[in-house]
C-alpha cells in the first residue's frame, strides 16, 4: 500500500508553510531517517525526515509552493514490494480543517454534551451526634492532634509520620510526643532538613500505597516543598484519569506565631485552597483538630492540614469517644445569632467569638461560623447564615488580597446578593510582611476589636 | 558534545578535566565495585528468545515514536511531545531485568518508551497522546502524564526531577511493606542538577532504600550540552558524597544495559542500599517536537545513528546468531502493523466526554 506523506506542522500553532525544497526526487529510494524535504515558515526551517522505507513514487506539491496547509498530501511513497507507477494520487487533498484532535472537530455532535457541563454537587455530611452523657474532657489542641495520629496509627498499619524532629526530639512543637515510643522508628521517621525531598518521598510513598503524615515544622518551610504538594500530590489523580491515589496528609503550624518575623509568619490557607485536587483543613479547637485530622488521615485524597502554633497549648472541650471523626467540607456554627454573621477559621474563630461576646453586651447578636475546611468550602453554611442575618463579615488571620475572605465575599456577591443589607467586609491582617517589633506586630494582626468595629459598620451602628 | 559511550573505563578520566579542577583518579572514587563487576564481562548472555524480545521491544519503541512524531506533525498530538528515539536500549535493558508486579518504575516526561518496555498496550498510550477517552489517562494527562498502576508504572512526571523524590517514596513503600521490591527511578542529565535529587540521594542512602537511580545521559538538557550545564559530567560519580555506588554504562547496547541492571538490582535486593547508574545514550530527535536543532550538528547525530544505533547493533547480533534477514523483516513488518493499529485506534477513538472535565479531581465526595 502506498504511504501518503503529509505536510507536517513545525509547532502546534502552525497551519501552513512553504515547501522550500525537495531533497529526494521521484524514483529515489528512501530509508527511515532520510531528509526528504525542507519546510519553511516565517519562524523556522525544518527538515522533513522519512519514517518509512520505500521509494518516493510521486511528488504532489512542487518545491517553492507557498501556503501549503498542514495535512496536505505532498508526496506518495511506494512500499517495498510495490511498483511506484501503481501509486495513484489521493482522491482528495486533506487539509488541516479535516484533521481531528487538538480542539478541532472530531465528529462529536453538539448534543453529545455541553461545553461546560454542570459540576456535580454534593451536600456535605453533618457532624455525627455526640451520644447523650458523653464525658467532655478539657484537652489542649496539641494533644488532640497527637491522639488523632496515634489512634489512626493503631488502626491502620500503613499510617506513619515523617518530618523534622518528629521522633527523638518528640516534635519541634511536641505534637508528635510519645509516638516514637509507641510505634518505633519505622513509623515515626526523623528526616533531614530537606523539605522538598521529604515531601516528595512522602508523596511517592502515598502513591506506593502507604498513608504518610508529613509534618512540616511550619508551613513556611513547605514553600520549599510546594511543588510536590501541588504538582505531584494534587494533580496526579486527575492526570492519571483516576488511577493514581495519593492519600497523604501534610500538616504543621501555619500563620503568625509570636515575634518570629515575616519569613516565619504567613497564612498559606488561601494558597492551597486555590488548588483543585487538594483538601485544605484549618481547625480551631481540640474537637475539630482531632476529628478532622482523623478524617484527613483516612481520606483517599491529599490533605493540607493547617494548624496554629498559638492554639497548640489552648485547651478545649473534647468528647471522650472511641472514634471521634468529623466530616470534611462542613462548616460549624460556633455561636448562633440573628443580626450579623462573622465567618472565620483557625485562630480567627477565637477573635470572632470574643468579638461576639462584646457585641452581645451592646445588643448585637452575631452568628459565628467556623469554616473548618477551606477546600471544599461549605458555601451553603455561609449562604444560609447570610440569609438569616443579611450582614456578613469575614475575619481572617492572613493577608487580605486573594484571601479566603475575598473568596467568601465573591460567594456572597454571586449567590447571596439578594440577602445583603450591607457590603460584605473583610477583617484581615495588614497588607505588609509581618514585622518583628512587638508594637508593629500587634498593629499588623487582626484582633477582636477590629472585628467589633467592622460588625458595627455593617450594622450601621457607631 | 555528549560523552562517547564507554565499555571500558579510561585509565584516568580526571586528566580530561580543566586546570581549575583537581585531577581525580579512579582511586578517589572507591564506590565503583559494581562497575568493576560489570566491566569483567559487560555483555549479558541472552538466550535466543531474550535477544528476539529485546529486538522487538526496541523496534516497537522506535516505530511507535516515529509514528507519534508523524501524528504530531499532523496536529493529532498537541502540546509537548518528547520522543525516545535513540534511547531504546536503556528502558528495554533495564526493565527486562525487573520483577513484574513487584518492582516499581517512575520517570520524567520522556515516558513513552518506558511504558512500552513495560508491555503496556501501545493503543492506549497512543490514544493518550491524541487526547482521547480511551487513552491510559482518559485523555487528561497527555504525553508527559501517563501511569499504569496495574504495571506499577508510576508516571510520567512533567516537573524535572520530581520523579526522583517520588521514586524515593516508592522505594520507602517497598521497604516499609517488606515486599522485596525495588524502585527504578529514571531522570535525565538535566534533572541531575536539580537540588531535590541530592536531597533524595541523601535520604535514600541514609535509610538504605531499595532504589536504583538511573541517569539517562543523552548529552543535552533541552539544548544545553552537559559540559555547559554540569561541573561534574561523570554523572555516575554524583552519588559519591552520599556513599552511593555508581555505574557507568553504555546505554546504546541493550546487552550491556541488561548486564549492568543485573548487577545493580542484585546489590539493591541484597539490602545494600541505592545504586546510581549513568546510562550514556543519545536522542536522535529534538528535546521535544519544537526543537530548533541549532545546538548540535547533523554530523554528530548521523554518527550516532550510523555507528551506535542500539537496534542496528542488536540486529547484527541476531544475524550472527543465525537469524535470517527474512525473519528480521517479518518482525519489522509485525511491529509496523502493531504501531499502525495503535495509530488508527488513537485517531478514531472519540475525545473524552465533556462530563469527564469534573471527574477524578478528588477520589472521595465531601
Descriptive report:
The complex is a heterodimer of chains A (462) and B (366). In chain A, helix 3 (195-207) packs parallel to helix 4, helix 9 packs across helix 13 (448-458) and helix 10 crosses helix 11 (404-415). The model of chain A is unreliable at 89-114 (pLDDT under 50). Chain A folds into 3 domains: 3-101, Beta Barrel (OB fold (Dihydrolipoamide Acetyltransferase, E2P)); 136-319, Thiamin diphosphate (ThDP)-binding fold, Pyr/PP domains (Rossmann fold, 3-Layer(aba) Sandwich), CATH 3.40.50.970; 332-458, Rossmann fold (3-Layer(aba) Sandwich). A 7-stranded mixed sheet of chain A has the order 11-10-12-13-15-14-20, with helices on both faces. Chain A has a 5-stranded mixed sheet with strand order 17-19-18-21-22, sandwiched between helices. A 4-stranded antiparallel sheet of chain A has the order 1-8-6-3, with no helix packed on it. With 462 residues, chain A is of the alpha/beta class. Chain A has helices spanning 141-155, 179-183, 195-207, 226-234, 236-239, 269-273, 286-298, 309-312, 347-361, 379-389, 404-415, 438-444, 448-458, and strands spanning 3-6, 16-22, 29-30, 35-40, 45-49, 54-59, 65-69, 73-78, 136-140, 159-163, 188-190, 211-215, 249-253, 279-281, 303-307, 315-319, 332-335, 340-344, 366-370, 373-375, 392-395, 425-427. Chain B is of the alpha/beta class and 366 residues long. Chain B has a single domain (31-291, 300-341), classed as Rossmann fold (3-Layer(aba) Sandwich). Chain B has 12 helices and 8 strands. In chain B, helix 9 links the parallel strand 7 (246-250) and strand 8 (275-280). The longest helix of chain B has 26 residues, at 48-73. The interface between A and B is large, with 80 and 78 residues.
Amino acid at each position: 500500500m502506498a504511504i501518503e506523506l503529509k505536510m507536517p506542522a513545525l509547532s502546534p500553532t502552525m497551519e501552513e508553510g512553504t515547501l522550500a525544497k525537495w531533497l529526494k526526487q521521484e524514483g529515489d529510494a528512501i530509508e527511515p531517517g532520510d531528509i526528504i524535504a525542507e519546510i519553511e515558515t516565517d519562524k523556522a526551517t525544518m527538515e522533513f525526515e522519512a519514517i518509512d522505507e520505500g521509494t518516493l513514487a510521486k511528488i504532489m506539491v512542487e518545491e517553492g509552493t507557498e501556503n501549503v496547509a498542514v495535512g496536505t498530501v505532498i508526496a506518495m511513497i511506494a512500499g517495498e514490494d510495490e511498483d511506484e507507477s501503481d501509486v495513484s494520487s489521493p482522491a482528495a487533498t486533506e487539509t488541516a480543517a479535516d484533521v481531528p484532535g487538538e480542539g478541532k472537530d472530531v465528529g462529536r455532535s453538539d448534543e453529545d454534551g455541553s461545553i461546560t457541563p454542570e459540576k456535580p454537587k454534593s451536600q456535605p455530611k453533618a457532624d455525627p451526634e455526640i451520644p447523650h452523657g458523653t464525658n467532655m474532657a478539657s484537652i489542649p489542641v496539641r494533644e488532640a492532634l497527637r491522639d488523632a495520629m496515634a489512634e489512626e496509627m493503631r488502626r491502620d498499619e500503613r499510617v506513619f509520620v515523617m518530618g523534622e524532629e518528629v521522633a527523638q526530639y518528640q516534635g519541634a512543637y511536641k505534637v508528635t510526643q510519645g509516638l516514637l515510643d509507641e510505634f518505633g522508628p519505622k513509623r515515626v521517621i526523623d528526616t533531614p532538613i530537606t523539605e522538598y525531598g521529604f515531601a516528595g518521598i512522602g508523596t511517592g510513598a502515598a502513591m506506593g500505597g502507604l498513608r504518610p503524615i508529613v509534618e512540616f515544622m511550619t508551613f513556611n518551610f513547605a514553600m520549599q516543598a510546594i511543588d510536590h504538594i501541588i504538582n505531584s500530590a494534587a494533580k496526579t489523580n486527575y492526570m492519571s484519569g483516576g488511577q493514581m491515589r495519593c492519600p497523604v496528609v501534610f500538616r504543621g503550624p501555619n500563620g503568625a506565631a509570636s515575634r518570629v518575623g515575616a519569613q516565619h509568619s504567613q497564612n498559606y490557607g488561601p494558597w492551597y485552597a486555590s488548588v483543585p485536587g487538594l483538601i485544605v483543613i484549618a481547625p480551631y479547637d481540640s474537637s475539630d483538630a482531632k476529628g478532622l485530622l482523623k478524617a484527613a488521615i483516612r481520606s483517599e485524597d491529599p490533605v493540607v492540614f493547617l494548624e496554629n502554633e498559638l492554639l497548640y497549648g489552648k485547651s478545649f472541650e473534647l468528647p471522650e469517644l472511641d472514634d471521634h471523626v468529623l466530616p470534611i467540607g462542613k462548616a460549624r456554627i460556633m455561636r448562633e445569632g440573628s443580626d450579623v454573621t462573622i465567618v472565620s477559621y483557625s485562630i480567627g474563630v477565637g477573635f470572632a467569638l470574643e468579638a461576639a461576646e462584646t457585641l452581645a453586651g451592646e445588643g448585637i447578636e452575631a452568628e459565628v461560623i467556623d469554616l473548618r475546611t477551606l477546600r471544599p468550602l461549605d458555601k451553603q453554611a455561609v449562604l444560609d447564615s447570610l440569609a438569616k442575618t443579611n450582614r456578613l463579615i469575614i475575619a481572617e488571620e492572613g493577608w487580605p488580597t486573594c484571601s479566603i475572605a475575598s473568596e467568601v465575599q465573591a460567594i456572597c456577591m454571586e449567590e447571596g446578593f439578594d440577602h445583603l443589607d450591607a457590603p460584605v467586609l473583610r477583617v484581615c491582617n495588614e497588607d505588609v510582611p509581618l514585622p518583628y517589633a512587638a508594637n508593629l506586630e500587634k498593629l499588623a494582626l487582626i484582633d477582636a476589636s477590629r472585628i467589633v468595629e467592622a460588625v458595627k459598620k455593617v450594622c450601621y451602628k457607631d | 558534545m555528549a560523552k562517547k559511550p564507554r565499555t571500558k573505563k579510561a585509565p584516568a578520566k580526571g586528566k580530561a578535566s580543566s586546570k581549575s579542577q583537581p585531577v581525580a583518579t579512579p582511586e578517589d572514587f572507591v564506590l565503583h565495585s559494581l562497575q568493576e563487576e560489570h566491566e569483567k564481562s559487560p555483555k549479558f548472555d541472552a538466550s535466543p528468545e531474550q535477544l528476539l524480545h529485546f529486538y522487538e521491544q526496541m523496534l516497537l519503541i522506535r516505530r511507535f515514536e516515529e509514528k507519534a512524531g508523524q501524528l504530531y506533525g499532523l496536529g493529532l498530538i498537541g502540546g509537548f511531545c518528547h520522543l525516545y528515539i535513540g534511547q531504546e536500549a536503556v528502558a528495554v535493558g533495564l526493565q527486562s531485568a525487573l520483577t513484574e508486579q513487584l518492582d516499581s518504575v517512575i520517570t520524567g516526561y520522556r515516558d513513552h518508551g518506558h511504558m512500552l518496555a513495560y508491555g503496556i498496550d501501545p493503543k492506549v498510550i497512543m490514544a493518550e497522546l491524541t487526547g482521547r477517552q480511551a487513552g491510559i489517562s482518559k485523555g487528561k494527562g497527555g504525553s508527559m502524564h501517563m501511569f499504569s498502576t496495574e504495571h506499577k508504572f508510576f508516571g510520567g512526571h512533567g516537573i524535572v526531577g520530581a520523579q526522583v523524590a517520588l521514586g524515593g517514596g516508592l522505594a520507602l513503600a517497598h521497604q516499609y511493606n517488606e515486599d522485596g521490591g525495588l524502585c527504578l527511578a529514571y531522570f535525565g542529565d538535566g534533572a541531575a542538577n536539580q537540588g531535590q535529587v541530592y536531597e533524595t540521594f541523601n535520604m535514600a542512602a541514609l535509610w538504605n532504600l531499595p532504589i536504583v537511580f538511573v541517569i539517562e545521559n543523552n548529552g543535552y538538557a533541552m539544548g544545553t550540552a552537559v559540559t555547559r550545564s554540569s561541573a561534574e559530567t561523570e554523572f555516575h560519580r554524583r552519588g559519591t558524597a552520599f556513599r552511593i555506588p555508581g555505574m557507568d554504562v553504555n546505554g546504546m547496547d541493550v546487552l550491556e544495559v541488561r548486564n549492568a541492571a543485573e548487577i545493580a538490582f542484585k546489590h539493591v535486593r541484597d539490602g545494600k542500599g541505592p545504586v546510581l547508574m549513568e546510562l550514556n545514550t543519545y536522542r536522535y530527535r529534538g528535546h521535544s517536537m519544537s526543537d530548533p536543532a541549532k545546538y548540535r550538528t547533523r554530523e554528530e547525530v548521523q554518527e550516532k545513528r550510523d555507528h551506535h544505533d542500539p537496534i542496528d547493533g542488536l540486529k547484527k547480533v541476531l544475524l550472527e546468531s543465525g537469524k535470517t534477514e527474512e525473519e528480521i523483516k517479518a518482525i519489522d513488518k509485525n511491529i509496523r502493523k502493531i504501531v499502525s493499529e495503535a495509530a488508527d485506534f488513537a485517531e478514531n477513538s472519540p475525545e473524552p466526554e465533556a462530563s469527564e472535565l469534573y471527574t477524578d479531581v478528588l477520589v472521595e465526595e465531601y
